[in-house]
Specification:
The protein has 148 residues and is mostly helical. Helix content is 65%, strand content 9%. The protein has a domain of 102 residues: Arc Repressor Mutant, subunit A (Orthogonal Bundle), CATH 1.10.10. Strands 1-3-2 form a 3-stranded antiparallel β-sheet. The longest helix is centred in the N-terminal third of the chain and has 26 residues.
C-alpha cells in the first residue's frame, strides 16, 4: 500500500473508522427495518420533522442528505406512497418544489423515534465517555470542512 505521508497508525484508524461505520450503519438499518423503515427514510423524516413547518426545499434536502436530485425524488415517491411525505410547489415563490411531512408522517416519525433513540444509545452513545462526544464532533467538523 502506498501510504504517502500517512503513518500506519493513521491508516489503521481509517480502516477501523470505515469498518465500524459500515457495521454501525448496517445494525441501525437492520433495527429500523424491523419497524418498516430504512435509515434513509428515517434521516429524511428527521430533517423534515425538524424543519420549520415540516417542509424543506427539495434542493436543500438533497444537499443535506447527500442525494442526487433523482435519488431524492425517488425516495420522496416511496415515502409518498406511505402517505408520510408530499411534494408541493414552494409556498414562498411557487417556482421550486418542497417536500412536506404530512400529519401521518409526523405520527410515523414520533412512533419510530423512541426505538431509534434507544438503538443509538445502546450502539453508539454508550461507548462515549468524558469529552469523547465533543472530540468526535470536532473531528467530524474538520473532516466535513475538507469535504466542502
Amino acid at each position: 500500500m502506498d501510504s504517502g505521508d500517512a503513518s500506519q497508525q493513521e491508516w489503521d484508524a481509517w480502516q477501523l473508522y470505515f469498518e465500524t461505520t459500515a457495521r454501525l450503519t448496517a445494525r441501525i438499518e437492520e433495527r429500523l427495518k424491523a419497524h418498516g423503515c430504512s435509515l434513509m427514510d428515517y434521516q429524511l423524516l428527521l430533517l423534515l420533522y425538524n424543519a420549520p413547518e415540516h417542509r424543506m426545499r427539495m434542493g436543500e434536502l438533497a444537499q443535506r442528505l447527500v442525494f442526487s436530485p433523482s435519488r431524492l425524488s425517488y425516495q420522496i415517491g416511496v415515502l409518498g406512497t406511505r402517505g408520510w411525505v408530499e411534494r408541493r410547489r414552494a409556498e414562498c415563490d411557487g417556482r421550486g418544489w418542497e417536500a412536506v411531512l404530512t400529519a401521518h408522517g409526523v405520527r410515523a416519525f414520533r412512533e419510530l423515534r423512541p426505538a431509534h433513540a434507544r438503538d443509538v444509545q445502546e450502539l453508539f452513545f454508550s461507548a462515549l465517555h468524558g469529552d469523547d462526544a465533543a472530540r468526535l464532533a470536532e473531528l467530524m467538523r474538520r473532516v466535513s470542512g475538507l469535504l466542502g
